[in-house]
């Protein structure tokens, strides 16, 4: 997503750059029923409802946060998990700066489908640059349910995140573990960050979306730098440029 309200262009420095308004688009995908809408409502509005209706198409909410002294607006898109709506993905995935893959820790099938969701997102979004470097974050949701019902262990989820990163070189950042093993994020630098979350109790959401914002911002900054390469010097500084040693034109 573009930087909104930027002052002085991408190379503007100092206070103007720090005051620049930054809009980052985040897309949440995963099977129907894993809690995507609940996660979004809890994070943005601090609300939880046990009776959400299935999302049709997509919807989004925005939240303004401060990351490393920068004011950032996250535009978070909640997409339909039902197969009949997946063809609409291209309209909502384009321009995303980060993608969140969500599964239900109590539903093994939703976890097994993560690879399909990741691949579908990359096909539909067609992100610029190397698609394997696009930032993904994984949420294992509904950890508030009793552990006896859990079908996907944290160890299995961490292993999958590492495999995906090694296979495709996916972007990842170091993540800070939570207070206990059941809420810890993956701490492997080469892995997709993994957060075990609860939309019902709000577990790990603040930490998770801060990580998402940093990853999305780094991606956005990288694209801006690629769009504005270093200028060509023509005055003979730093090694001649377009002029010969005697000042005459070298062309």
TrEMBL record:
What's one GO MF term for it? GTPase activity
One example of a Gene Ontology biological process annotation: regulation of vacuole fusion, non-autophagic
Q: What single Pfam family name could you report for this chain, choosing any that match?
A: Ras
Keyword match Nucleotide-binding: yes
Q: Which InterPro entries match?
A: P-loop_NTPase, Small_GTP-bd, Small_GTPase
The entry assigns this protein to a family as follows: Belongs to the small GTPase superfamily. Rab family.
What's the protein name? Ras-domain-containing protein
Query: The organism's lineage?
Result: Eukaryota, Fungi, Fungi incertae sedis, Chytridiomycota, Chytridiomycota incertae sedis
